[in-house]
């Protein structure tokens, strides 16, 4: 069994002046040939790897703090600390360090770094003055003491000597005794001097002095001294706040007196640092580094002691989930757990892992399901913070819990659906809570943090679970806001029946969306006002999450989009007056097209889903803004990537409306790509006809006269795998104008098609059959042009003609 005396934790100080844990191991001091000197070695207790190898340099200043800490600086910007499990081990290594440096082990610091100018100054000082002599601790000498303390702060060596002098003969306690006398006599001058003295002693940055000053019998007098700042007309009332206003709430009685004392001390020291002491200047930043360390290690001890008290934590979670617990009591319990989790951030990774596993075993996640559904905003906010700690620490732990819920019971509300409901129902006008929850959901559904899991099937299982039980709850506001037909409350509930699960009824969603007042038979295009800023923000958040899904969930999101016709519903939001929401809808489509997936491309072509995008471009007119640039970029991407099926669809159906746009060459470029592909297909067709048979001229004429239709069908069958759907028109055109007339007679709507473009009948055959063009859901109707979407500003044709002369929208919108 390893010697626990030598068991240590290794810490390094980061750029934010916070201690980072580098691991736990066992320390030894031995001669290292490579470093040519006695060195401190720490080997990890888990695998024996080397955590630390540091030569004990004769010029390095080592400092002993709190009986179990040794702190030093390797370089100007690299501080190290060893935290010992036992005082005996710390003393043993400290003696070794002092032996190498030739120092007295009774000291708490071996030496301070001295710059060149410091050395030169001290060479001139007589040897007899190497000790700092403190004046007698008397009222009449307070000014002299204050001047002395203030004068030594600029000199590292004199600070150390003053600290040694203050530690001898109980000088600190004598000063605090004078404070009580001055306060009784209302001696303001003496109190002002004591403020300077105590503040200066804190800036000496010595752990041994802190142990005395922050002890139970001294700390309130220290706070009292700091109330009498000479710069203030009236003293502050910090002691009154700490003793009367700030109440120590024990949600569950703490029986350990040492733990209770440590909690009180940490709170008061944190108060001194954050509230009482002025913010250190750039030059004073290092003066309180030891105070930061003092608070840090106190928090580590508190969390460790609480975690070891199983009876205490068990009682906390039992009361938290008990239905009989009063709301005020539950609020205090949730706030305690939140602060407990915040303190846990000071733990080293291994201990933090054990900490959160302890919370999971005690039932933290079922408890969160209960408290996140409460009406109390403070409780919900605290529960959200706790949930964020859990998700950031271990998304896999949360995923594992939520996947087990449907198996346990059908009555409990799913945790993720509770989180989604909180996001949807956030009452904050700026949706601060919704933004935080959206980030947590994004972390949970991110496949990147599922890859390192030991459970190799976690990704597949969780995503299947999420799309089965949760996705319809997430998209409920989006689908409710993009409904087009006559709707009643009863019909809405029937339509959104897919939004409910065994665990969450639609009644949870409707009030959040503002649909509870919807009257029977009302005829609203959008049940929720799309111009409502808060609703628009919520829809933007949902679209951001769905866009993330498109990028990272290939199969599941594709199936969901196809089944729910989701892209069509999203593109309705291109009509929103909120440009940021229209851009979110456009970004969603851009991510889909960016995948260059032919399944998606066929879905877009079949649904004629470029129509709302092009309408938005035309409706934007000549305004050069972000929406204009984003739409142009979408078509530029299609051109550069040469996505043939989409190019053919755009040119065939929309080029007439876009050809007037000349300030970019994007649409002319699309037309050029389209023509090039037609030429290539034509050349390929001619080459096939030349090489198919060697026929003389008469035979060729005979075949052409008698079997023209058979030849055409044979050619089509031969080329069916080479031609994209869009270019099937080329062959269909050869069948004569009769087919075109049949296509034109179909009922429905279509976007404007340029003159001369061949029109064909829809093709519902399988992929193995002869390919023809899949028409949009709106075939050509050669009638008066009518807007695709009814806008408030649409008037009859005469008014449109008058407005064209004045409106910046110089290009006509697409018509149907």
From TrEMBL:
> Gene name?
ppp4r3b
The source organism is: Parambassis ranga (Indian glassy fish)
User: What is this protein identified as?
Assistant: Serine/threonine-protein phosphatase 4 regulatory subunit 3
User: From which residue to which does any coiled coil extend?
Assistant: 671-698
Lineage, please? Eukaryota, Metazoa, Chordata, Craniata, Vertebrata
Keywords tagged on the record:
Coiled coil
Described function: Regulatory subunit of serine/threonine-protein phosphatase 4.
The record, for InterPro entries, names: ARM-type_fold, EVH1_PP4R3, P4R3-like_central_dom, PH-like_dom_sf, PP4R3-like
> Biased-composition ranges for Acidic residues?
700-713, 791-805
Q: Where is this region: Disordered?
A: 700-720, 738-770, 787-816
